[in-house]
Amino acid sequence: MSVTATIRIQEADFDIAQEIAALTKGRIDIGAVVTFTGICRGTEDGENIAALTLEHYPGMAEAEIKRHTDEAMSRWPLSGLTVVHRVGRIEPGQNIVLVLTASQHRQAAFHAAEFLMDYLKTNAPFWKREESARGSSWIEARDHDDAATARWTKS
Amino acid sequence: MKLKYFAWVRERIGKAEETIEPPAGVRTVNELIGWLAQRDDSYAHAFEKPQVIRAAIDHAHVKPDAMIAGAREIAFFPPMTGG
Asked: Kind and range of the H or E element at A145?
């Protein structure tokens, strides 16, 4: 059967159990669900932060995530896929992003979840601004995130 | 065509979007950056390091040598930090 990815960008928090239930409800073909949750840390490079504010490019963010969920579904036999990315102000301990991948066997779900997160980090148009005692500043992209994405490129 | 700016590119330019008609000699994304950078100090500041600026045409990532003819919307932004 064909699989449609669920993609949402929202300010509101998400409930992981509810998202898994929505993905697996009434299905007996799924043998594995992998969940990845990105959470706002309380420190960044040793400095305490008060909050992150996430900006995104409406329209392109959804399109870019869809390009990568399509790619994930073409590379691994997935039975379901959900990506939820929050925007707006997020405090330490709160959720930022959720990736759920479902498949008959665990390996495809693990690989697809990692692939999607690596691509989201470097290719999805979202930007984080951090607030700390010293004021607020844009978080800079990390080279190791680019390296993580590059390893999925087919040679 | 419509231009959109995000994150610190938006803050430096001082606006989120605008509609422009670049001169005929401006054919690529890189040439558009060069043309914008000459408009005033805000644009010059935003585009002072063109090599770090990322661009998208009509919601898809493009390289600096991409042609802009026919583009409806071009966006400029810093490297992405989502996830």
From this structure: helix A143-150
Cα distance between residue A151 and residue B35, in whole Å:
36
CA contacts within 13 A on the Cβ side of B14: 6
Task: Enumerate the residues of chain A whose CB falls inside 8 A of the CB of residue B7.
Answer: 55, 127, 129, 138
Domain ranges of chain A: 6-148
Q: What is the CATH number of domain A6-148?
A: 3.90.1170.40
CATH 3.20.20.70 is held by the domain B2-77 = no
pLDDT tens, position by position, A41-75: 999 888 899 999 999 999 999 999 999 999 999 99
Residue among A97, A86, A69, A52 nearest B7 (CA): A52
Best of A60, A115, A129 to substitute, by most chain B Cβ atoms within 10 angstroms, is A60
B54 vs A118: CA distance, rounded Å? 18
CA–CA dist A141, A96 (Å, integer): 17
